[in-house]
Amino acid sequence: MNLPPFIRRIWGTLLQTLFLFKRPMTVGVRIIVHDPEAGTVFLVRHTYVSGWHLPGGGVERGETAMEAVRKELMEEGRLEPRTEPVLLGVLFNRGTRHNHVLLYLSEDCAQISDPEPNWEIAEARAFPLTELPEGMAPATARRIAEWQAGQSPASDW
């Protein structure tokens, strides 16, 4: 589903406001899904916010961070890690209130089936590291560049 930009902004604002009331301090996960053999990284484009992003989402009450990683990979990319993803860092997202992002790296995922667009995900696919798409979210571009350079992620998302 491809929504007009103004509807995406309204939808994104409504979701963020709902999450602030539901859980004022949030913890999220984002995952760099890298296929070393193909030289690709997996990205998603949401229906409610512009740009390409690393797969991920919020850690729900009663859920471990690793359960959230596995859930988000399956929901957004139909991806299943074959080995345990590695925690790269904990970052603070100053763009939202009290939001911390746990950044993971997974280099051994199986794609169970092709991801299908839905109300949340407009598109999801792997890109060669040498041909990353235009319009990547700035934080996504920074995290990928840091990881490629062998640097630890910055403290801010």
Structural write-up:
The longest helix has 18 residues, at 5-22. Helix content is 27%, strand content 33%. The chain is built from 3 helices and 9 strands; from the N terminus they run H-E-E-E-E-H-E-E-E-E-E-H. It has helices at 5-22, 65-77, 138-148, and strands at residues 26-35, 40-46, 52-53, 56-58, 79-81, 86-93, 99-106, 109-111, 121-128. The strands form 2 sheets. Strands 1, 2, 3, 4, 6, 7 and 9 form a 7-stranded mixed β-sheet that branches. It has a two-stranded antiparallel ribbon with strand order 5-8. The mean pLDDT is 90. The chain starts with a helix and ends in a 9-residue tail after the last helix. With 157 residues, the protein is of the alpha+beta class.
**In one word, what is the shape?**
globular
Helix-strand pattern, N to C?
HEEEEHEEEEEH
The number of distinct β-strands equals: 9
Number of helices: 3
Summarize the biggest pleated sheet. Answer: 7 strands, mixed
Helix content: 25-40%
State the separation between the terminal residues, measured CA to CA: 27 Å
Binned strand content: 25-35%
Helix/strand/pairing class, anyone?
alpha+beta
Low-confidence stretches: none
Question: Which helices and strands occur, and which strands form pairs?
Answer:
Blueprint (H helix, E strand, L loop, with lengths): L4 H18 L3 E10 L4 E7 L5 E2 L2 E3 L6 H13 L1 E3 L4 E8 L5 E8 L2 E3 L9 E8 L9 H11 L9
Short structural description:
With 157 residues, this protein is α+β, with helices and mostly antiparallel strands. It contains 3 helices and 9 strands, in the order H-E-E-E-E-H-E-E-E-E-E-H.
